[in-house]
Specification:
33% helix; 22 strands; disordered C terminus; globular; protoporphyrinogen ix oxidase, domain 3; 3 domains; FAD/NAD(P)-binding domain; alpha/beta
């Protein structure tokens, strides 16, 4: 008797996690359909002339023991004589690595130092913001006074209802700090005013971080009490794991194990829709790499494709109100410009020890209002093996845009020139030191929490009513999940399928009340 057939749409973290879990269980056959020719989704690694790019930046850290153990089983930690510790779930986990060397097959996790900073007023600020001498000097007495007064005012007279992200942030940081470090950057990311973004976004991405928490952390750091903190906030974690060749290395290894275990992954398979009958999916409609229309039967479907596209392809069609909301769901698109430079400009605050003036950050949030760049990755600091020549600096300049807008339409050469010019304008490089560049465009990178999203519950309830259809992952649920949250949704979907359950509430509960998030800035 044939095993039940589970079709998984998308070979990103959620889809591949589901496939491997099914292979390991052995009772059902997974078939992964991927529209592109690579695995990992936005967690893939893109190679350009021997240099590797991490799209969006992915720190491998989770408060889920299951996720951490899963990752480390796929890629063990590189060991050297040095050791460090990573904290999660209020525990200290001993790991052996200094993050500088890999051995064996190269299929390893490195332990990396975590450093993200804000670049504002042509100066570096610690992130999360710390009330230290650097911050106080950079801000100046007048701005500090306004921040303090507005924070006290927000504590004494908070906004009674939090209808928008602006309400959420002002209530926690005060109006002046909100306008200094949150408003402009957030609006650069999303392209709409903060008072039009749902407060739910803040609850998912910034929960647990506050001025009080920053003060507590500063005191613990000063007096050595950090290890005693029982509930470590992830934005304040000092180290993280990272695959030696970028996040795509892990997902390539997962895909190998899926196929080796009897699962199947087909590339160039564009899912056009689902055929459903009597509350169940009966087939998946595909356009293959040759342009041929194919229909594949399905006992169960796990979808990680954008909800907008999923609903548009339902046969028979979804109810009119569901189609209307789904078609209008907003997304934010993303461009990464890879820029190879011989050196960066010297900056005393950059804490650089290298001859090429490279700052030690994993990424830098560009808060400056006179440029469009949102964030800068320094790939050398994620893993030395992402860079073909250790003497060069390999940068990723991240732009947030809409598919079809002026940035999206720029030819690659013009986009590279824009990126180099902006870094020169804010004093980070000299254009003459640029050696090469490339451009990666990623549509539907960030599901957005405004506009039609207010009525998303209608779409969710209708899709959840299809008994053997399971939504998982960031785009699959139109939820700004991190990599580990996406994996957990896939795990729960597989468990429900194997247990014969139809209730999807546990899947939707992932990343709702969780106080952990990989990053708390409004970016990937």
């Amino acid at each position: 008797m044939d095993k039940p057939f589970v079709i998984i749409i998308g070979a990103g973290p959620a889809g591949l996690t589901a496939a491997l879990q099914l292979v390991r269980d052995g009772r059902m056959r997974p078939l992964v359909l991927e529209a592109s020719n690579d695995v990992g989704g936005i967690s893939r690694t893109v190679e350009y002339k021997g240099n590797r790019m991490d799209i969006g930046g992915h720190r491998f850290f989770s408060k889920s023991d299951w996720v951490m153990d899963w990752w480390r089983e796929i890629l063990p930690i590189a060991t050297t004589d040095a050791t460090t510790e990573i904290a999660y779930r209020g525990q200290r986990r001993r790991v052996g690595a200094d993050g500088t060397a890999a051995g064996g097959s190269g299929l390893v996790m490195l332990v990396r130092d975590r450093l993200s900073r804000i670049y504002f007023l042509r100066k570096y600020f610690d992130y999360p913001i710390k009330l230290n001498a650097t911050t106080l000097t950079n801000l100046g007495p007048l701005r500090l006074f306004r921040i303090g007064v507005s924070y006290v005012w927000a504590m004494l007279f908070p906004r009674r209802t939090e209808c928008s992200l602006e309400d959420f942030l002002v209530n926690r940081f005060g109006g002046e700090l909100y306008r200094t470090f949150f408003k402009d950057y957030t609006e650069k990311v999303w392209g709409v005013p903060c008072d039009r973004i749902s407060a739910e976004w803040g609850a998912q991405r910034i929960k647990g971080l506050s001025i009080v928490e920053a003060l507590r952390h500063a005191v613990r750091q000063r007096f050595g009490g950090a290890a005693k903190e029982a509930a470590t906030k992830t934005s304040l974690i000092e180290h993280f794991l990272y695959p030696r060749l970028g996040p795509g290395q892990l997902w390539q290894e997962v895909s190998r194990r899926v196929t080796e275990g009897g699962g199947e992954i087909r590339f160039g398979q564009q899912v056009a829709g689902l055929r459903h009958d009597n509350g169940r999916v009966v087939a998946v409609l595909i356009t293959d790499a040759a342009g041929q229309a194919i229909e594949v039967r399905a006992d169960h479907v796990i979808s990680t494709m954008p909800v907008k596209d999923l609903v548009a392809g339902m046969q028979p069609p979804a109810p009119a109100d569901v189609r209307e909301v789904a078609a209008a769901l907003p997304y934010r698109d993303f461009i990464t410009v890879g820029l190879l430079v011989s050196r960066m400009r010297a900056n005393r605050q950059a804490r650089s020890a290298g001859a090429n003036n490279m700052p030690p950050d994993n990424w830098i949030y560009i808060q400056e209002r006179d440029v469009r760049i949102g964030r800068l990755q320094v790939f050398n600091n994620w893993s030395p093996d992402l860079v073909a020549d250790a003497g060069h600096v390999w940068l990723g300049l991240e732009y947030f845009c809409q598919e079809g807008d002026d940035l999206w339409r720029l030819e690659d050469r013009a986009m590279i020139d824009l990126a180099a010019g902006e870094l020169e304008k804010i004093g980070m490089i000299h254009r003459a030191d640029v050696l090469d560049g490339t451009v990666i465009r990623v549509p539907k990178t960030y599901p957005a929490y405004f506009g039609a999203y207010e009525d998303f519950l209608r779409v969710r309830e209708w899709l959840d009513g299809i008994g053997n259809l399971w939504l998982a992952g960031r785009n699959g649920m139109h939820r700004y999940n991190n990599q580990d949250h996406s994996m957990l949704t896939a795990k729960l979907a597989v468990e429900a399928i194997l247990d014969g359950k139809v209730d999807k509430a546990a899947i939707w509960a992932v990343n709702v009340d969780d106080d952990y998030h990989e990053e708390r800035r409004p970016a990937p």
